[in-house]
Amino acid sequence: MMKTAAEVREACRSGRWTGPTCGLAPDYVQANLAVFPKDWAYDFLLFAQRNPKPVPVLEVGDAGDFRISRIAANADVRTDLPKYRIWKNGILEEEVTDISRYWRDDLVYFLIGCSFSFEEALVDEGLPVRHIEENVNVPMYRTSLMCEGAGKIPDTPMVVSMRPYTPEQAVRAAKITGQMPFVHGAPVHIGNPSEIGITDIAKPDFGDAVTVNPGEIPVFWACGVTPQSAVMEAKPPFMISHAPGHMFVGDKRNDDFRIR
Amino acid sequence: MMKTAAEVREACRSGRWTGPTCGLAPDYVQANLAVFPKDWAYDFLLFAQRNPKPVPVLEVGDAGDFRISRIAANADVRTDLPKYRIWKNGILEEEVTDISRYWRDDLVYFLIGCSFSFEEALVDEGLPVRHIEENVNVPMYRTSLMCEGAGKIPDTPMVVSMRPYTPEQAVRAAKITGQMPFVHGAPVHIGNPSEIGITDIAKPDFGDAVTVNPGEIPVFWACGVTPQSAVMEAKPPFMISHAPGHMFVGDKRNDDFRIR
């Protein structure tokens, strides 16, 4: 198994690895990718500033610059993720494993924090994560909580991820993730799903349903799918994202993003 | 004395208060102001993203919008600060108490976190703040720590503020302010000033010198003067800032910015 972030990036760059990054190089921060033409970059950065829980920005490149230098050393955003998606006018056009031929001088990349970072912290402190135990994708829901738009990006429903815990565990999980404001932070809601507009907890809008045991309550965190959902609604003429689960792996440690 | 933020803003708006805001409406968050034409806004927001310790952005307006609605209710950035500075090409042109006649449809305001917020937390936890005790301005220094530029804003030396503490107090102060990443966060340096390029602790570049007692070490925090210094170097054709010490007072509490 690949143990370091540099090994994962090298395997992606050479084409040897094109699969999901979940479980690879544990301890290292993983990040969502969004690439926009320069004339969309301000609106996206402002959307992130206004909605830091769903959109915690870890690094932004200069226009045209494909080198990643802040959360990783010697990385190349064009080749170092296992899989990318090319979007035109809000429609998915293609999945590719290298975006070199799409790169342009006016493109700006955004690397955005990911819940993998806080899940490691939860597990380390003895709080099991149900969807990992059940080996499925985390359940995600559209909510009635609204994110504030910015420029061409409209007000959009926040997407949340859910992990079930006992009330005692929920308190500890809230405290731990509250110490990680740069990777989604504290829960946005605990308990009754209908209070945030979720009608059926067994039917997530994205990902898979997980078991909620008797005595457990659902705990909801702001989710990195939110910006994708907002941007798809805004329909930029051109945009590149990572393929779901196929993240950028940086050299910083998850623990670097925790405040104690 | 004015006890609430709304009282302070009303007094500024009516012209009854044009003095510094230090000590007014304690508990309420105070913020630095920077206003730019839209074509400078992206570079400034990106500079802030890359340098969150000296430039913690609390709220950004839409272009042309003078209403402040996120860290305060029913506030107007044109009238609700006691004193402003008008800058042209990096040169201070004028000090005014109302910027209504300067407001334009392409202006974007940025409200930026201020060390008043963490000083309240320090005092509340029994850590005296020397420059408050000595009734002078906090000492500030240009350092050899560099901030990363963004677009038209160049790489610039970080400006830091200094408060002397015993080593035991310094540890507690670091912990408390580390819990406030949105208002400058943990110290950037503790101890020997020369390690960050400060040659004489008795001669600050801005503000006033304070007593460092035997057994105390200087503790340095990223300072909100940094963006002003960076921007002055970049010489935008037009810009508005608050006058030093004459801050915006919001309805959020300082404690809202603390993570425990």
Give the gist of this structure:
With 260 residues, chain A is of the alpha+beta class. Chain A has helices spanning 5-13, 38-50, 116-124, 130-133, 167-178, 225-234; strands spanning 28-37, 57-60, 67-68, 75-76, 84-88, 91-96, 107-113, 140-147, 156-165, 189-190, 217-222, 238-242, 248-253. In chain A, strands 1, 2, 5, 6, 7, 12 and 13 form a 7-stranded antiparallel beta sheet that branches. In chain A, strands 8-9-11-10 form a 4-stranded antiparallel beta sheet. A two-stranded antiparallel ribbon of chain A has the order 3-4.
Notable traits:
7-stranded antiparallel β-sheet; 4-stranded antiparallel β-sheet; homodimer; alpha+beta; 6 helices; globular; 260 residues
Please outline the helices and strands.
2 copies of one chain form a homodimer.
Chain A: H1 5-13, E1 28-37, H2 38-50, E2 57-60, E3 67-68, E4 75-76, E5 84-88, E6 91-96, E7 107-113, H3 116-124, H4 130-133, E8 140-147, E9 156-165, H5 167-178, E10 189-190, E11 217-222, H6 225-234, E12 238-242, E13 248-253
Antiparallel strand pairs in A: 1-7, 1-12, 1-13, 2-7, 3-4, 5-6, 5-12, 8-9, 9-11, 10-11
Average pLDDT level of chain A: 95
> In percent terms, what proportion of residues of chain A is strand?
25-35%
**Number of helices, where a helix is a run of at least 4 consecutive DSSP H or I residues of chain A:** 6
Characterize the quaternary organization of these chains.
homodimer
Query: How many strands, which pairing sense, and closed or not: the largest β-sheet of chain A?
Result: 7 strands, antiparallel
Largest interface comes to: A-B, 18 and 18 residues
The SSE string of chain A, one letter per element, is HEHEEEEEEHHEEHEEHEE
State the shape of chain A.
globular
Cα-to-Cα separation, first versus last residue of chain A: 31 Å
Report the radius of gyration of chain A as a whole number of Å.
18 Å
What structural category do the secondary elements of chain A indicate? alpha+beta
Helix content of chain A: 10-25%
Number of strands of chain A: 13
What ranges of chain A have pLDDT less than 50 throughout 5 or more consecutive residues?
Answer: none
